[in-house]
Fold this protein.
Amino acid sequence: MVCIAAFIILLIIGVFVAFISIFKPKVGKKYLKTLKKSWSCFGKRVTLQKCETGFGDDIKNDILAKVAARKPKFVKPLSMTIEVASILVVIVAAWSLVEGIKAGLALWTLGTCNVKHASSCTLGAEVCSIDDNTEPQNPIEYIGLWFSDWGEIFGAMPDKFRSWDTSNFDFAGITINHDEGDYYAIDIFDPGCSVCLSSFRTQYETGFFKDHKVQLVPFPIQDESGNFKFKNSEIIVRYMYASYKYGEPRDAKDGADSVAFQTIKRIYTEKNADGDNWQSIFNDVYSNEETEVELTAWLKEFGYHTDERNAIKELAKSDEISQLIQKNNNIVVNDIHAKGIPTMIYDGRKHTGKYEAE
């Protein structure tokens, strides 16, 4: 183990030695000589062969010789300490390697190096993560969750080799522009997600909604306990679906966007009379009751009469809308394997994170 541990440590300090050798070439040459000897021993150890070079013993004996000359009684306990430390170094290095492979595979398959908390991965796309807040209560649960991460990674691997066809997903979404765009697209977002806001603005400004026949899928992020990541997202999503299911106002203007689309467009791109962004108001200021009052006022502004507004309010609270949201959520999590949003499907691919115009 001393041999393996020494090789690992030599690799780690190699970065610093490379810098030092620029000014002191002799240090670099001495390091390379030692590294070659260590590699010879390491290669045989990992293939279960006898290490003929005795490199590990040489390292250990050099340390113990200095101690033996001054404190002979410390030789034995120090020898044991070196062995234990070597084992720990090897274990930590092996664990780090496995975790590195796991993070790399997760980034490749799921778009995030952290399966449970996508937004905490700086290497992945910027997203509002669909977090799994399950916390292990004991080592057995920790091991179970660790292996479940691997299960998700391997389960998502086929996604990397498939062609993403929007027709394969039976979303009860909000369709827009089906008479204009040339390409089909699915756009999954949370009204309270700041990354979704930025993504929507880019899509709107670059003509994505005109170039594509888009199906909007409002997705209120929810944890295992039933709590919503953004407190008013579910209410907004319910009103969006309810207005879409109900239909356009009797006095709707020809060529006007659907009320559901106007709602999310206002939340993402407009401000109130005080100059505050609507998303921030819904996320940080309004209560659930205030949100419903505001959305009802918008319905009036968008052209709905009193009886229509009342019908939409009832529909928004109905089991029909609850089942619709649950159906969509299951597709997002279980079929698309989304770990964060916005998530979009277009051009035969799944795109995670903020939309970037080509």
In short: The chain has three domains: 2-103, 104-159, 164-352. The radius of gyration is 29 Å.
